[in-house]
Amino acid sequence: xxxxxxxxxxxxxxxxxxxxxxxxxxxxxxxxxxxxxxxxxxxxxxxxxxxxxxxxxxxxxxxxxxxxxxxxxxxxxxxxxxxxxxxxxxxxxxxxxxxxxxxxxxxxxxxxxxxxxxxxxxxxxxxxxxxxxxxxxxxxxxxxxxxxxxxxxxxx
Length: 156
What we know:
Elements: E1 4-6, H1 7-14, H2 18-26, E2 33-34, E3 40-43, H3 46-58, H4 63-70, H5 81-108, H6 145-155
Helix pairs in contact: 5-6
């Protein structure tokens, strides 16, 4: 069995368009080898890398964060089990943080997530004169202070 995949084979195996593979490559997330005819060939470990990239994107992580983390893995070969476990361990705090934010949104969504919209009759955050605007853009009351302290620990 050939250890390298054509761009079409890799895309089909992953379930994405070939343009997505080109995009990931152009952004330094994956690498390919070129044949003498200029065709891309991907090592099989690209399947795992792209699966990680797509999962990270689905939880809202930025391409720059993903690229920075992937740089810790060897580019010329598949990571060993220990290397992959160390890599995964680095992501646990980021994922725990994302999970906490999503749970906070889920739990507060039916009342108010602190956007300052003042449109709900039973708003748990009264924001007269749009005082929240002085704090800049975004939802400022999504997490209460206990949640913020816990998340600050997770990020450090």
